[in-house]
């Protein structure tokens, strides 16, 4: 990991688990309090977690209507790079 103000890689897809839900998407911008992702989706059911992280495929996915979501960094419990 490179030394920067944040550990997220622009252009990388992530699965973000937050205190209330999970979101997947490609990071396009990181600010001090938010992260913007495109190709975003709410993940209702990840299925087998390890397999989902390897494949980027989930059991139940609802795409964001306009494809972009702003995720509050303070709500993120963990973030996993996915293909």
Euclidean distance between termini CA atoms: 17 Å
Q: What share of residues are in beta strands?
A: over 45%
Uncertain residue ranges: none
Structural class: mainly beta
What is the count of DSSP helices, taking H or I runs of 4+ residues?
A: 1
Radius of gyration using CA atoms only = 12 Å
What kind of assembly state do the chains in view correspond to? single chain
Number of strands: 6
Helix content: under 10%
Major β-sheet, in short?
Answer: 6 strands, antiparallel
- Helix and strand run: EEEHEEE
Which helices and strands occur, and which strands form pairs?
Elements: E1 13-18, E2 22-30, E3 34-45, H1 49-55, E4 60-63, E5 68-72, E6 76-82
Antiparallel strand pairs: 1-2, 1-6, 2-3, 3-4, 3-5
Report on this structure.
- The chain is mostly beta strands and 83 residues long.
- The protein has one helix and six strands, in the order βββαβββ.
- The chain has one helix at 49-55; strands at residues 13-18, 22-30, 34-45, 60-63, 68-72, 76-82.
- Strands 1, 2, 3, 4, 5 and 6 form a six-stranded antiparallel sheet that branches.
- Strand 1 (13-18) and strand 2 (22-30) form a beta hairpin.
- The mean pLDDT is 94.
Brief overview:
With 83 residues, this protein is mainly β. Strands 1, 2, 3, 4, 5 and 6 form a six-stranded antiparallel sheet that branches.
Write a concise keyword list for the protein shown above.
single chain; 83 residues; mainly beta; 6-stranded antiparallel β-sheet
